[in-house]
Amino acid sequence: MATTTSGTRRRVGKPRGSYAKTDEKRRAILDAALEVFAQSGYRSGSIRDIAERVGMSEAGLLHHFPNKSTLLAAVLERRDDRAVQFIPLDENFGGRSTVNGLLELASYNASEPGVVELYCTLSAEGTSPDHPAHQYFIDRYEWSRGMIERAFTIIQAEGDLRPGVTPASAAARTLAMMDGLQVQWLLDRDVLDMTEELRNFFRTIVSYEL
Amino acid sequence: MATTTSGTRRRVGKPRGSYAKTDEKRRAILDAALEVFAQSGYRSGSIRDIAERVGMSEAGLLHHFPNKSTLLAAVLERRDDRAVQFIPLDENFGGRSTVNGLLELASYNASEPGVVELYCTLSAEGTSPDHPAHQYFIDRYEWSRGMIERAFTIIQAEGDLRPGVTPASAAARTLAMMDGLQVQWLLDRDVLDMTEELRNFFRTIVSYEL
């Protein structure tokens, strides 16, 4: 880890202070980009608007992220890093732990409406084959379905999946439920509790106490 | 009905032929608007692009729909008229009939990817309070949840709702499931069958054979 950092330093050849500043600026740009993409979508969201929010020129911003799609990729990657805190990538993470992790993720999402809005808007836009995040979303859903399917397969082996439920179908429906609840919650935050409804959903899939 | 038609004719004072032509143009504009809004969203979708698709000038289009939000409202209204074929508005429509109607609606949607894309993109964009369709979506979800809740209440009275399931929660989750399945289906049409997964979902909610 230390080697990588010093390696990077050597390659770019700037003193430490500049790095801290650069990192800070990058973070500020990504925060602003998240807000703009969440509100206006990727297509309508403008680099100029993002630059203005952090008090930079467009050229200044493009020094950090050479184009809009690089910026989008960085926003998505940063958000995924946070989500993975709740669902470790470990293959042997376990069935019940994954279900619990998804419930914790839903609670965390409820504290970050901007991020939920970003995902909701971008995943809808991203269904178009010509959208720069199209492949990202295809891969992300495939990966997530696989991960959740493995969890339900473990739960099934433990005898805790309800009769007639298959792990693959339960996985696709879990993602659908999480996505769909977000739309209703964004429209009216008092109308439903995302975590509670996801728990209600899981109760119809698994037979252990939840 | 005849009175209304002749009344309208007198008011505008044009012969029958012009009417048919006007209707045809309006329909062509709405088809083009649906495509453009579905692909680019409402915010990025341009009147000019819509006009070009039907071989009109922007001014010509604005003669039929005075602005972009009127056009959006007309596109949404037209789509709702079609959806209501599957779920009659009659309060006494019945529990099982509503569930069957929603399954038929899911099948119909699978034959109209453009319409699904429109709803998916617009409902995501429309979660922003400043979006022209924001109130439309709030009202639409409230109405739909109420209608589905009534259906599940009837099913419950018939003893066919699974233990622990409440009609209100089941209604919110039904809409969430339909919306969420659409995102995954739009990303990859071979990955899941929306009607089949909706049926799998209903099977965990109701106890009668489905």
TrEMBL record, chains A, B:
SUPFAM superfamilies: Homeodomain-like (SSF46689), Tetracyclin repressor-like, C-terminal domain (SSF48498)
InterPro entries found in the cross-reference section: BetI_C (IPR039538), Homeodomain-like_sf (IPR009057), HTH_TetR (IPR001647), Tet_transcr_reg_TetR-rel_C_sf (IPR036271)
Chain segments carrying region Disordered: 1-21
Domain of life of the organism encoding this protein: Bacteria
Keyword annotations: DNA-binding, Repressor, Transcription, Transcription regulation
Domain HTH tetR-type: 23-83
Record keyword Transport present: no
Record has DNA-binding as a keyword: yes
Feature: DNA-binding region: 46-65
Pfam families xrefs: TetR_C_6, TetR_N
GO molecular function: DNA binding
Protein name: Transcriptional regulator, TetR family
Top-level taxonomy: Bacteria, Bacillati, Actinomycetota, Actinomycetes, Micrococcales
